[in-house]
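[Discussion] Sanity-checking designs against the backbone

I'm trying to build intuition for which residues belong where. Below is a C-alpha cell string of 361 positions. I'd appreciate it if someone posts a full sequence so I can compare it with mine line by line.
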C-alpha cells in the first residue's frame, strides 16, 4: 500500500520540521528544498560534543564531579539565535505590559550588584525561595503560567532529533533568563521537582559557567568554583549525573547582557494541577543513525582546522566537497533509516567528542 509520498518527500518534511525557519522559508539563503535539506544535514553533522572530567574527593571517595555534563556546540545557528532572541524580547515586552499570565514574567529590582535576573517561565511556575504565601522553593502546582511558545518547542524538537536530549526526558517547562550587565545566578543545584537531564542554551554574549562543590565569593555576584566552562553562542549545556546533583553551578556576574533558556522536564508527581501536556511534544524521536557511517564520526572539520593554511582557494574547495559529502551521507542515512526505530541503542553519542580534563590547582 502506498501512502502516495516518496521517501524524498518524507525526508523533506522531516528536515523542514526540524528547521527553525518560518513556514515561508525566511532563511535568507534562497535555493530550493534540496539546498535546505543539505544545509540542515551539514548543520547536524557539524554539532560537536564535549565531556568533562574533574576529580574531587566527595564523602571520602574520588569522583568525577562533572560526570554527565555535555556541551553541544553549534546547535542553533546565528540566524536562529536572532529569531529566538527576538521572540524573547517580544515576551519581555508583553510581560512588562502585564499581558502574560501572572507569574510568567518576573523582573526583580536590581537592588545590588549581581541581583535582578529577569525570568520568563513557561509550563510551570517555579518558586526560587519561600514566597509571601508560604510556598516553599519548587514548582507551585496551583499556579498557572503561559505554555511553551511554538519557537521554543521547535528548539526542543531540534535537541531531541539531534541527539542532544534523550527522548525519555522531553522538557515540558522552561525558564528564560535575561542577565543584564553585572547580573548573576548564584551557585545552586537545580531542584528535584525537575528530572535529569536538563539543559541550558546560550544567546547574545558568551560567558563562563562555573562548577564546583565549593565556591569562593570574590565580590557581590562574583563566584569561582573548581571548573570554568565558556558557553559559546547557540550551544547547549546538558547537565546530568554528578554535574547536576553533586556539583553546584553558577553564572557569575556577566560583563554584558546575556540570555539563556533552561529546558526541564517536571517530575510527574510535581506537575501543576491544570497542566495540559502539549501534543507537539509527545513521542519525539531522535534521528536514527544505527549502522550508518554518520559524518560526525569523522573528525574532518577539526583536522582541517589544525592544518597549516594551504592555498586558500584550494582548501575552500576541499571543504565544500567534504561538506557536500557529509550532507550526502546524512541524507542517505535518513533515507535508509525508515521506519524510525527507537531503542536505547538509538541514542548513540555524537562523535568527534572531546573530553576536557580539569586539573586541580
Ligand atoms: O544561564 C545559564 O546558563 C544557567 C541557568 C541556570 O542555572 C538555571 O536556570 O537554573
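Best answer:
Here's mine. Compare freely.
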Amino acid at each position: 500500500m502506498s501512502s502516495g509520498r516518496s521517501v524524498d518527500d518524507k525526508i523533506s518534511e522531516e528536515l523542514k520540521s526540524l528547521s527553525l525557519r518560518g513556514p515561508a522559508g525566511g532563511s535568507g539563503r534562497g535555493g530550493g528544498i534540496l539546498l535546505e535539506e543539505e544545509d540542515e544535514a551539514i548543520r547536524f553533522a557539524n554539532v560537536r560534543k564535549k565531556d568533562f572530567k574533574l576529580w574531587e574527593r566527595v564523602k571520602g571517595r574520588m569522583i568525577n564531579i562533572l560526570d554527565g555534563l555535555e556541551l553541544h556546540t553549534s546547535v542553533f545557528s546565528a540566524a536562529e539565535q536572532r529569531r529566538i532572541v527576538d521572540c524573547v524580547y517580544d515576551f519581555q515586552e508583553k510581560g512588562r505590559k502585564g499581558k502574560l499570565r501572572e507569574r510568567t514574567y518576573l523582573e526583580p529590582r536590581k537592588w545590588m550588584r549581581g541581583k535582578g535576573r529577569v525570568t520568563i517561565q513557561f509550563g510551570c511556575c517555579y518558586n526560587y525561595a519561600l514566597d509571601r504565601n508560604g510556598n516553599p522553593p519548587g514548582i507551585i502546582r496551583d499556579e498557572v503560567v503561559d505554555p511553551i511558545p511554538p519557537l521554543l518547542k521547535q528548539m526542543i524538537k531540534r535537541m531531541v532529533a539531534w541527539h542532544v536530549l534523550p527522548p525519555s526526558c522531553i522538557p515540558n517547562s522552561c525558564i528564560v533568563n535575561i542577565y543584564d550587565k553585572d547580573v548573576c545566578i548564584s551557585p545552586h543545584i537545580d531542584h528535584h521537582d525537575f528530572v535529569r537531564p536538563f539543559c541550558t542554551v546560550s544567546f547574545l554574549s558568551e560567558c563562563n559557567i562555573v562548577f564546583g562543590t565549593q565556591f569562593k565569593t570574590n565580590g557581590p555576584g562574583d563566584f569561582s568554583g573548581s571548573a570554568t566552562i565558556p558557553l559559546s553562542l547557540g550551544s547547549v549545556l546538558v547537565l546530568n549525573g554528578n554535574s547536576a546533583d553533586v556539583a553546584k553551578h553558577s553564572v557569575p556576574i556577566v560583563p554584558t547582557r546575556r540570555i539563556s533558556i533552561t529546558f526541564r522536564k517536571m517530575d510527574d508527581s510535581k506537575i501543576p494541577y491544570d497542566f495540559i501536556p502539549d501534543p507537539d511534544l509527545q513521542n519525539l524521536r531522535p534521528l536514527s543513525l544505527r549502522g550508518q557511517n554518520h559524518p560526525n564520526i569523522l573528525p574532518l572539520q577539526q583536522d582541517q582546522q589544525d592544518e597549516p593554511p594551504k592555498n586558500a582557494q584550494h582548501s575552500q574547495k576541499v571543504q565544500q566537497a567534504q561538506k557536500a559529502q557529509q550532507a550526502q551521507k546524512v541524507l542517505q542515512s535518513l533515507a535508509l533509516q525508515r521506519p524510525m526505530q527507537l531503542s536505547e541503542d538509538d541514542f548513540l553519542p555524537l562523535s568527534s567528542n572531546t573530553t576536557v580534563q580539569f586539573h586541580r590547582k
